[in-house]
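Why do we care about 3D structure at all? Because function follows from shape, and shape follows, mostly, from sequence. That is the central idea of this module. The next example makes it concrete: a single protein chain, its amino acid sequence, and then its structure expressed as tokens.
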Amino acid sequence: MAVLVIVVPLTVTAILSSEWFRPKLTGICNSFVENGEITMDSLSVSLLEEIPLLSIKLYNGAVHSHAYAEIDAKNEKYLPQIPEQAHTPVTFKQFVVSLDIPSLIFGKINIRRIRLSEPNIYGYISPWGKANWDIFGEGTQEDDTTEEEITSTLNLGVQRVSLSKAYVTLLDDQNKNMYKVHIERFLTSGNISLDPNELNIRRVHLKDSDLSINMKKGGNWAKFTIDSLIIRGNKAEELYSIAFASKTNLSMGGKAYTRGFPLNIDGTIGMDIANPTNFDIDNTTLTIAGSPITFDGKVGFIGESIFTNLTCGIPDFHVGKAISYLDTAAFPQFKGMSTDLRIALDLKAQGRYEGETGLLPAINADIRIPDGTFKYPGIDVEVNRLGFDATLKANITIDSQKDFALLDEEVDFTVHSFKDLPTELDEDLEIIAVPKRESPNEVLISSKKWAELARTNALSTNISLSN
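And the structure:
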């Protein structure tokens, strides 16, 4: 058996390293491409680099798209504006697939690791809505390798995926938008499966990356940088810890708005990764320019609606420090301004948000500005000892936490006193039953008998008024 373990991988290595295997592998890859072609310059195989894994390295590969080879006559006028890069949506310097050697011995291809170096991905959507990545099919092979043979021997039990020096561009010519992403380093580990129920992400690490957006192709670029993002997961408890750090340089239209603006996120979020529609936010802190903002509660998505039962606390937001990170060329009104004002906020948002109808959740906010000073150049005014304390409230159409549980399908029905119901119910709630009313008489509870009560005795009662 020991001889078999040594001989089989060596034999596989010799076969895979031969020139015979490159067109064979290219044919397998192209069996899943109906309207395009996958090419590569060369490949090599390493047996000792990642024992007990066998590494297959593909060099200088490309995915070619023929999505625009045949188009309707009415769309031919758009052909000159299709960029040349749209015909080659993917190029890469090196693509490494690591296979499990024990599985190979028994005739199975078990992919454990994937590594992609210097990929250039260019997505394009034409003015009539056709994408250049619409080239993949279900898999058909013209030679003696059938789709059934491929799928029966191939297993995507990937444990680690890494990406380095990646550039991703999406040009949407239909909506006139462009998006660019540069990823210097990306790593994820766990059980990376196409089946959401088998998916188990244990760690994600994103480093030194940036996102650029150009809306309506008007040269109005916005750029956002990420220094580091680390996510650690525990699928058994459906908890994911997040550690995000960025000193963001935000620019638009060639004009810088922030320089080195510090932004951090630390905390824990609970969710079912197979069905990420409800999020439990557990004491998560967003730190902006050194000022912490804490979040705690729930956020859920049902259709196009957002439900929230979230609290937010800002114990000490330093206004002057946040302003110091703004570029005064873009914000000349802040040039020379100085303040030591600090803001404290306690906010609770509870209810439902709908973009189409404008329905907003109920917001209860307590804002406090302790004593402070404020100076502004050009105006001979200095404000000292500025104090402000206010409470903002909004009405709500959902009566209580019980109804949030009902909307989240945590319970089947709730019971209320009619006097406690709001005048307008949420559109997804309805009164389904009204039981027979019992005696409406009030009950007096007293340490004295009725005859002992004097006319001067005070009587306390409870009245609830719905809005």
